[in-house]
């Protein structure tokens, strides 16, 4: 996932709110929440206020619009204050709601997985462009699957092609349980198999029978320690899923080395690696060095903001 755009001013002591816990209408609560959130420079304070009330009352925006003068039960007042304080301290709304939409599907998320970012949807777009009308026997593996948002979307879109196998791979058992839950939530449990592995290790150990065309999506940890330190908006997300070492490329170097062990004369491998803009040239040099004995094609794909977002390696 891309995080550099989410860098914010550091937060010091834990923010508290003097939010009034008296009984009020939905409209009055929304106004107070908006004021508190705006004062703390939370982005989209009006939307955030609505999301807090929607989540607590288990209603949608239409309900808020149609019932502005409905009083909120006093049993919910402490919940409102608690939600507000979490947001003032940059606790992600996705973790509060325990859900995040990604490529039009809803995913369960908690502190054991990263929150899906819209920048990563580019991986799905690129694979669909090349694969949707292709009947070739293919293995698609999502390495570092986390919530499963990439592989589940790909499976739902491409599963009509019975020659494609879908795998979500992660080293973290807690993440895999969430991915399996999301597969059921999105009716993809019959199409996606989840495997616990250190990147490609179990594939190298022949635990998966690969087809002649192999597509690997690798949205691995690619932040440096300095980037993590300067990014308060991600301080509640799992550090192990963010920290890519000194140059942010530790896991990409490892997976490129592992790819050599599954490459043979018959198969064709495509690797989609998500990066920060500044890592483009550095990773290309690593690819050329690690795969120097192979005939390799390298392509950089930019996102909608014209930033380098993906490196596609074909061999």
TrEMBL record:
GO biological process, one term: methylation
Family matches, as SUPFAM superfamilies: S-adenosyl-L-methionine-dependent methyltransferases
GO molecular function, one term: protein methyltransferase activity
Organism: Candidatus Falkowbacteria bacterium HGW-Falkowbacteria-1
Keyword list, A-Z: Methyltransferase, S-adenosyl-L-methionine, Transferase
Residue ranges annotated for the Release factor glutamine methyltransferase N-terminal domain, each copy included: 34-96
Residue ranges of domain Methyltransferase in the record: 135-201
High-level lineage: Bacteria, Candidatus Falkowiibacteriota
Name of the encoding gene: prmC
Any single Pfam family the record assigns to this protein: PrmC_N
Protein name as annotated: Peptide chain release factor N(5)-glutamine methyltransferase
TM regions (residue ranges): none
InterPro entries associated with the record: HemK-like (IPR004556), Methyltranfer_dom (IPR025714), N5-glutamine_MTase (IPR050320), PrmC_N (IPR040758), RF_methyltr_PrmC (IPR019874), SAM-dependent_MTases_sf (IPR029063)
Organism superkingdom: Bacteria
